[in-house]
């Protein structure tokens, strides 16, 4: 299989696994599930090319093509664990597979099909179970698999997601916030970082969904943890950085939703409302039991730039906390790469290049450099102008 087809196969797996994850949280009819199935089909057709079918075998928690493990990071591993959960050892997909058949597979794997996971005309499932003995010349076969159970991003349970949504809802109604629940969520993210995972890819399943501030906060949390762990930060500081990221935009919940979601230009008054969210967030968090002080500081400082521009004004005379600098980077990255009402999404290369040149002015130079390293580690083809 040539490189192009292999990449298409990895894309197929990524879209399929994301569709299953999305379908566990949202109805099967959700547009995002349909979109991911369509993308999966498109990638599948490129991967199959002129062959008649493609056979993915599951061996323990790896996907194997022919006799070689596919590698490729967390999505093949994620698909393998989904197949394992359904007792499937072999997935054969013919070139005539349809989007509807992919949706049937997604329904089965996400537990939404009362008949369970089942074969269709062009997608055949087998119970075949293989053992794979890794050889020395095959580095991808020697992972850290089989160790104690560690949480993956997708292990963020529906219950935890709902808990987080409740917290956001309660906050919108100006109720007091307790850090119980938030703390568990951050712990499960941190556990995921103890394994080799691609934090950038982990952002994808939650993207493009509604509830911008909610998904944005999760994305910023994942990116901040990626930055912090890459710098060797661990323990309670890492935990507090995660919580701070998750809560950095909490003040936005006090901005009217019509203003937050307004398509097109904001007028001066509306901008003023948006610009008050760091102060409102900090004022709110300072009275919340169990919320670390770092979260208060981060909420207040995350829009103050390295060169003291940004907002709140008159706050730039003192040095910002490292957590605020990290949040500024993650925040900017996520805001620029995600579709939002007041600026269209841009592609990764453009975003990364823009941010690279902001290092030393708007963004902290060393942290910006480190952020680019993280991006290029997971996207080796990334070309920064
Ligand atoms: Fe913000
Ligand atoms: Fe933000």
Any descriptors?
mainly alpha; 16 helices; binds fe (ii) ion; Hypothetical protein af1432; 2 domains; single chain; 51% helix; 385 residues; 5 strands; 5-stranded antiparallel β-sheet
Can you tell me the CATH superfamily of the largest domain? Hypothetical protein af1432
What is the strand arrangement across the widest sheet?
A: 3-2-1-4-5
> Which spans have pLDDT < 50 for at least 5 consecutive residues?
128-155, 196-210
CATH architecture of the largest domain: Orthogonal Bundle
What is the compact description of this entry?
With 385 residues, this protein is mainly alpha-helical. Helix content is 51%, strand content 6%.
Structure notes:
By secondary structure, the protein is mainly alpha-helical. It has 2 domains: 3-141, no CATH class; 153-378, Hypothetical protein af1432, CATH 1.10.3210. The protein is 51% helix and 6% strand. The chain has 16 helices and 5 strands. It has helices at 3-25, 31-48, 74-85, 99-109, 158-172, 182-193, 199-202, 212-230, 235-247, 257-260, 268-275, 277-285, 293-301, 322-337, 348-358, 365-378, and strands at residues 53-59, 62-65, 68-69, 90-94, 123-126. A 5-stranded antiparallel β-sheet has the order 3-2-1-4-5. Mean pLDDT is 78; it is low at 128-155 and 196-210. One fe (ii) ion binds next to helix 8.
